TrEMBL record:
Pfam families: Cupin_2. This is Cupin domain-containing protein. Transmembrane segments: none annotated. InterPro entries: Cupin_2, Flavonoid_dioxygenase-like, RmlC-like_jellyroll, RmlC_Cupin_sf. Residues 41-105 form the Cupin type-2 domain. It comes from Salinihabitans flavidus.
Amino acid sequence: MKDGMGITAAADGIDGVAWNVVGHTYTPKLLSDNAFIWHAVVPADTFVPPHIHPTQDEWIIMLEGALEVEMGGQTHKAGAGDTIRMPMGEAHGIFNRSGQTATCVFGVAPSRKLFDLFGALDGVTDPNELVRLSALHEVDFLPPPENG
């Protein structure tokens, strides 16, 4: 499904779609071959484990709250109004350690298979299945650290 001209209302996703992915609510707002953009509600104490998008650049624009992104061997903290840039091929993990819900807008370019991945992951809670499905859709999760 690709959307064309028009408006995606604030409370709506494309064709009424919204997904629960790793405890976050993702609502797609724009989908074309060139870009995929979604609104995200990221509850406190949730995270996306470190992973790599080998075929996409990714970014997050913070609306409310705060997130921490681990990449490049550092932890980067972002709050409302900040933009987080995660280049193609750069491993990154996204964490809400703020104690409050964060809202933001994510995007990737090009779209590749990420929209389809979120549909496949909707409600999946088994970490092994999340890793397997993600690999089929060009997202590679890193193994957990040896100490945890």
